[in-house]
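User: Can you fold this complex?
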Amino acid sequence: MTRLTVLFLGDSFVAGVGDPTALGWTGRLLAAAHHPDRDLTGYVLGVRRQTSDDVLARWEREADVRLPGVGTGAVVVSFGVNDAIVEDGRRRVPEERTVENLRTLVNQARARDLAVLVVGPPPVADDDVTARVVALDARLGATAAALDVPYVGTVGALRDDPVWHAEVDAGDGAHPGAAGYERLAALVRPAWDVVVDGLA
Amino acid sequence: MTRLTVLFLGDSFVAGVGDPTALGWTGRLLAAAHHPDRDLTGYVLGVRRQTSDDVLARWEREADVRLPGVGTGAVVVSFGVNDAIVEDGRRRVPEERTVENLRTLVNQARARDLAVLVVGPPPVADDDVTARVVALDARLGATAAALDVPYVGTVGALRDDPVWHAEVDAGDGAHPGAAGYERLAALVRPAWDVVVDGLA
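Assistant: Here's the predicted assembly.
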């Protein structure tokens, strides 16, 4: 049986913060991909507050101790909301650098023979942040297309999703609950299925 | 609301390998601890094939990018099965060194003001390995007691558990399925509840 290893990289949304089921969108995708004839291991490496700079700084080291050296692997990466947040009057990561970070990460993943799936940043309660996320989503999608890697935008679908917003508003203003993460997982699911089938 | 951060360190059992629900025992504990008035973030940092040597070599770096610098935190650590496996005629990690690694890790965790919970290694299908796990479990339990950290043995209860063994035998000979992980989570739950209550 081929060993399949998937690394989920990113921020608190990747970590599933706020989900009472502890699955987040990543756990839902891993459960959906489970099959007795498939030896799939998923590592969820989202970290709260992390920008694309932060993810880029750590991901290779964390990946290299997890990649078994046999079988096939993939990286599912999602960042951008923290990049788009303004703190002390400054945007944490300028849009251009977020885009450059994605390019770098995709190239580093390819150097390890890893398939790549990019998941765009979701909306939050703060309309100014969400507006910057919308702009960033367009840039990230175009960058992924230029690099020929699949991209799943989420802000477009979730911006008008009452379930997402009700949970975000009832929570901490950024993270949804179980139903919101289920929506996010459903958006990613078709592209995820393609990635997993491609690994087998 | 106090920020609580829990790091789960260890091997494939910590990673939840084989669980079709993708929760493993760690996700079950995190879900059990979820509460709207509790800002709890769990990071599951189990890695397949890793021994206590391997965990010791990486955990501080991975912890330091995840600990937010505010609130309180804990480490839940579980290793030992891979240490007890013989490869090419050699035990991967001698019992004495596994014990020493636990001591070192507990001291490193305390230096970071992290609470510690130690979960003992579970049984596998191979009786020789399980016999070594039983011996190691006794040493780890005594070490934890000497260090005054809580220890939950699992091999004693799971060795005679038909649900655990049925799933391990139906799987890869090491990892259970959902019901087995549920049993493991149930064994850890009382000590886990004490740790979480202590963080709040």
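Chain A touches chain B through 30 residues (CB under 8 Å). The two ends of chain A are 9 Å apart (CA to CA).
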